[in-house]
Amino acid sequence: MSRLEDIGERDGWRCWLCDEAVDPRMSVNDARGPSLDSRLTKAKSKGLTPGSTDRLAHRGCNTKKGAVTAVVPWPSNLFVVDPAPIITTVERLQRKGGREIMARCPTRADAHDAATWLAGRIARLAPDLDASTEVEAGGGQFLLVLRV
Predict the structure, then answer these.
(1) Average pLDDT over residues 65-73
(2) Half-sphere exposure (Cβ direction) of 74: Cα atoms closer than 13 Å
(3) Is the Cβ–Cβ distance between 74 and 109 less than 8 Å?
(4) Helix or strand run (H / E) with residue 55
(5) Which candidate in 14, 17, 75, 105 could, as Cys together with 111 as Cys, close a disulfide (CB 3.0–4.6 Å)?
(6) In Å, what is the CA distance from 134 to each residue of 112, 113, 128?
(7) Cβ-based neighbour number of residue 133 at 10 Å
(8) Cα(141)–Cα(137) distance, integer angstroms
(9) CA 81 → CA 17, 18, 64, distances in Å?
């Protein structure tokens, strides 16, 4: 098996940036084809091996990201206010642990929908992170909390 196939299997053939399926049969030159995104700069400072930091991405998603900080978008169907940047928050929690408020929601149902989505997304984004989501009432709104 090639390195791309190994990482594709590990990541469930899902793009870590857009969270959509990656077809392993597509050409690596196609925008929707598979590619590897290496995050070596931060990995070297943490003593990680290059292979452990590789993530599966669509060629187009990887190219669009370029050398800028990647952003995992919150879906437009979720009713969240002031959503936190997911990748930055996950990296901070991996280093320090603790809890962070990820978003505010007007109803408990909206907060639970967002919590369910966020838990699944983080499980794919950082599979080794033991994270949980919680909904807390506060000030007439509901807070979505990510805890490690």
Answers:
(1) 73
(2) 19
(3) no
(4) strand 55-58
(5) 105
(6) 8, 11, 19
(7) 19
(8) 6
(9) 21, 20, 26
The single-letter code of the amino acid at 19 is D
SS3 category, 66? coil
Q: Six-digit token pair at 145? A: 């909390």
Q: What is the SS3 assignment for 106? A: coil
pLDDT category at 51 given cuts 50, 70, 90 is very low
Q: Which of 71, 63, 117, 125 is nearest to 94 (CA)?
A: 125
Stronger pLDDT, 116 or 125, i.e. the higher one: 116
What is the pLDDT confidence band of residue 124, given thresholds at 50, 70 and 90? confident
pLDDT digits (tens, 9 = 90+) for 18-49: 888 999 888 888 888 898 887 644 544 444 44
Torsions phi, psi for 43 (to 5 deg): -65, -40
Tell me the two tokens of residue 58: 């669509």
Quick one: DSSP state of residue 24? T
